[in-house]
Amino acid sequence: MATLSPTVAVKYPQTRHGGGSGAPPTHGNGGGDGRGANGSPDYGERLRRARLGLVVGLTPVIMMFVSFTSAYIVRKGLPTVDPRTNSYVHDWLSVNIPWGLLLVNTVILLISSVTMELARRQITRQAALAPVSSIPGVSLGEEKTFPWLGVTVVLGLGFLIGQWMAWQELAARGFYLATSASSSFVYLLTGMHAIHLAGGILALLFAAATSLLRKPVEGRRIVVDITAWYWHFMALLWIYIFALIEIAR
Amino acid sequence: MASTEIIHAHAAPQGFIRKYIFSLDHKVIGLQYYFLALIAVFVGMGLSLLMRIHLIWPNANLPIFGAIKPETYLMFLTMHGTIMVFFVLTTAPQGGFGNYFLPIQIGAPDMAFPTLNMLSFWTTFVAFVVLVAAFFVGAPLHGWTGYAPLSAVPSAGPGEGLGADLWITSIAIFCAASLMGALNFITTVLDMRAKGMTMMRMPLTCWAWFITAILGLLAFGVLLAAGILLLMDRNLGTSFFVPGGLNFTGQTSFPTGGFSSSTDLIKHNGGSPLLWQHLFWFFGHPEVYIAILPGMGVASQLLSTFSRKPIFGYRAMVYAMLGIGILGFVVWGHHMFMSGMSPYTAFAFSIMTMAIGVPSAIKTFNWLGTLYQGRVRFHTPMLFAIGFVSLFVSGGLSGPFLAQPVLDIPLHDTYFVVGHFHLIMGVAAIFGIFAATYYWFPKMFGRMMSEGLGRWHFFLTLLGTYAIFMPMHYLGLAGQTRRYSEFTQVAYQTKLIPLQTFITYAAIVTISAQFIFLFNLFWSMAKGKKATDNPWEATTLEWTTATPPPHDNFGGRTPVVSHGPYEYSVPGAARDFVMQNDPATTPAH
Ligand code: HEM
Ligand SMILES: [Cu+2]
Which of A14, A190, B285, B492 has its CA 20 to 30 A from that of B256? Predict the structure, then answer.
């Protein structure tokens, strides 16, 4: 009943069956392995899609921190009942933030953002040259591949260790998680940020792993590219959090 | 921009596990969501039956459960609400049908990120398992809204210990799953439309799924944040939501140190229960639209198809949905009029809430306009689509009443609200799911569902749900409280017993009628009449594919679209409908 109307042919990424009921693909990675292993070589499109996905995916992260922020601000201004006097009291306790240490961490994170960007540009170049350098007999000369990615991972871990030290310092000053609402929020905001950054580090390690497995550089480039944007976002987010807990003390 | 040539990056999977369990195919994932919701809805329905029975025969000894204690009733209530809202109304319309048909309707071979898609289903599944686990350790009492401090203090009541932890964990996992899904839907719509499939040529179902995904993207992050805070309050001793001076079991907690005795309450020193309500309802109100919008999309699609008329006011429909989506984020306070709120704030929320009536009315009138003078074909899916409109109107009319603080304060904790939200959110959205099931079944399974059984199912369910939920408005006006396990011994409520008894009988009949549907569903899969590729003579792209659609939907081709989605009875056309991918011989608009 339905007329199958004019269609355009798709340019196929690789040998594959025609319709839905065709034979299984005969090449490498086996069926249905998904985009990563079996992906199309149209990396430009995949990159654009991944970037779009990242922008969309950052929205809920923003919403989460917006929620925490509004809770923070509201709680800061909120009086609570003291049953002993049966009256409202302001129980907000200014947290004595180890801001020197946090400043050092901030610098580390900002530097890591720079090295991340260098890693991104490096792999972008590599991906652009990949088709040329894969032609037999063509050499692009000695490639200098400074391990920017590795440096970024190390700096990222350094930041996390620095944050951990900051928590130790907070505790030493008597501010534990449940000491007061203000200290709860400081731990909450820094902790949630740390978890998100750790996710970025995992993504970079994943990219490194695919390079060891000699997967095509273009695929790795996509991972590095979106992780880089994510990383920059995390740096911005950190500056925001730092400013918040410092200013709205 | 629309990509002209879409490459389907993964090949058809081999082997049972890759094909049916950890499948990357959006169609399989859609069915997985659908069947998860089907299991969930029967669990939720069973619980509602137990509650109805307990309400009118509070001393009855039920099989398995024995005599129901008040806390058991509240556990049923919590699980019923949570399962229904999250695992049925959020899961089936969006995760189920959205997954299956959104890519096909926009001419894409799959979702933008198939692996993420698979992950989001399995995460939802884990969330469901964790929720059901709460049953076995004693489910929480705090209802689907989980108000603090009841939900924030483990010793606040039976089920508020481990059960509540599982409940919150389940919700948090569900949030993560829904966020993954929303990300995928949005990217797919923005980036994977076939050539010629402009945004304004998308079927209204796609618009609905798209807007729903945006709402989910913005709302679930907030619920996740709230859930994290709640878990910290419960397990790490923070006091985001637990107020100072709380006196639960004889102990009092004091702000700024100094506590009266040593229970888990002493760890708390002054948080705000209202903060939970704000965060929850900032999610909660958009959530009710997450549940209903896909149904609106389906109703629009079906009313147009079966009236053989273009949808009345396509653009108005799109803008109305966008308007509902935007307004939906600024009205959450209408759930909190009773919680203590400045009259000025309440006034603002009230005005904004009533403003939602405008786009809602636009949609309703456009649906009626679509039906008007149509050559209506009353197939079962159409019956359910009309039923959807009916329920949307009858449930929606009570909204503007509740939106006024002076009326809401006496009505808030009564059955009036139960009637309102069950008609509009519960049953209307379920009718959307039914309509979609009857409509797309031929495409999904290659066979038709039985019309005879479908009709019985429709009329019994329509009359049954009206019989259940309409009288609840009256009960509420008469002062019947909600979330109480027993009322038969409350003097002023005893006169309501006959009506409550009637409701319980109506519930028994309606629930029984659902087994007609269940039978029809599975029987038709095996024995139904073979379906053609386009049994309803509809115009959208899913009806151009083979039945069921092949792994990459269009068999290695990608459609080019030159028509809007609802070109029925076009003057001068050879047939009374023009497929979206028919060549553009006639002017496209
Ligand atoms: C013109 C449209 C609507 C208006 C003005 C409206 C207004 C309201 C108001 C003021 C309340 C709070 C009542 C109270 O708790 O005291 C409420 C509750 C509720 N509404 Fe609506 N509503 C509308 C449409 C909808 C729709 C479309 C849905 C779902 C699809 C919905 C679902 C709910 C639910 C679930 C609750 C109760 C939540 C709870 O307390 O558990 N409403 N509505
Ligand atoms: Cu609401």
Answer: A190
B555 → closest Cβ in A19, A53, A64: A19
CA B564 to chain A, closest CA, distance in angstroms equals 15
Same domain, B503 and B544: no
pLDDT digits (tens, 9 = 90+) for B12-40: 666 777 778 889 999 999 999 999 999 99
- The whole-angstrom distance between residue B533's C-alpha and the CA centroid of its chain comes to 29
Q: Does domain A44-131+146-248 have CATH number 1.20.120.80?
A: yes
Residue-level pLDDT at A86? 77
Instruction: Estimate to the nearest angstrom the gap between the alpha carbon of B416 and the chain centroid.
Output: 20
- Do A178 and B239 lie within an 8 Å CB cutoff? yes
Provide the residue range defining the domain that includes B407: 300-527
β-bridge mates for residue B283, sequence order? none
The answer on B412 and B339 residing in a single domain is: yes
C-alpha B121/C-alpha B36 separation (Å) is 9
C-beta separation of B279 from A74 below 8 A? no
Neighbours of A192 (CB within 10 A): 18
> Which B residues in the span 537-556 are in contact with A, Cβ-Cβ below 8 Å?
537, 543-544, 546, 549-552, 554-556
Distances (CA, A) of B501 to B67, B470, B471, B473, B494: 19, 14, 11, 15, 11
Residue B290 forms part of a structural domain? no
Residue A5, pLDDT > 50, answer no
User: In the numeric block, which tokens belong to residue A209?
Assistant: 């792993």
Query: Rounded CA gap, B256 and A24, in Å?
Result: 69
d(CA B585, CA A62): 47
Domain ranges of chain A: 44-131+146-248
Ligand 1, atom 21: nearest CA belongs to which residue? B399
Please give the pLDDT value at position B364.
96
CATH of the domain at B143: 1.20.210.10
Closest Cβ opposite residue A32 in set B24, B224, B559: B24
Q: What letter represents residue B136's amino acid? A: F
**Facing residue for B113 by CB, picked from A6, A53, A71:** A53
Listed range (A112-121, A134-143, B499-508, B533-542) with the worst mean pLDDT: A134-143
Residues 6+ apart with CB under 8 A from B58: B68, B485, B486, B488
**Which stretches of chain B score pLDDT less than 70?**
1-14, 245, 247-267, 585-589
Please work out, in degrees rounded to the nearest 5, the angle formed at the alpha carbon of residue B184 by the alpha carbons of B182 and B189: 100
A7's enclosing H/E stretch is strand A7-9
My answer on whether B492 and B537 are in the same domain is: no
**Ligand 2 center from residue B425 Cα (angstroms):** 10
The residue to mutate among B411, B424, B430, B472, having the most atoms of ligand 1 within 8 angstroms of its beta carbon, is B424
Is cis: bond before B548, omega within 30 of 0? Answer: yes
Please tell me whether residues B521 and B557 are part of one structural domain.
Answer: no
> In terms of domains, do B437 and B309 share one?
yes
Instruction: Tell me how crowded residue B372 is: count the other CB atoms within 10 A of its CB.
Output: 11
CA distance B552 to B541: 13
My answer on whether B204 and B341 are in the same domain is no
B542 and B522, same structural domain?
Answer: no
Q: Whose CA is nearest to atom 12 of ligand 1?
A: B335
Residue at which a domain ends, from B271, B290, B320: B271
Structure tokens at B588: 């496209």
What pLDDT is attached to residue A40?
53
CA pair distance A75, B275, nearest whole angstrom = 8
Residue B286 covered by a domain: no
Is the CB of residue B498 less than 8 Å away from at least one CB of chain A? no
How many distinct structural domains can be found in chain B? 3
Residue B58 within a domain: yes
Q: Tell whether B504 and B582 lie within a shared domain.
A: no
Using a CB-CB distance cutoff of 8 angstroms, which residues of chain A are in contact with residue B183? 53, 56-57
- The pair of three-digit structure tokens given for residue A244, joined into one six-digit string: 């918040």
Please check whether residue B294 lies inside any domain of the structure. Answer: no
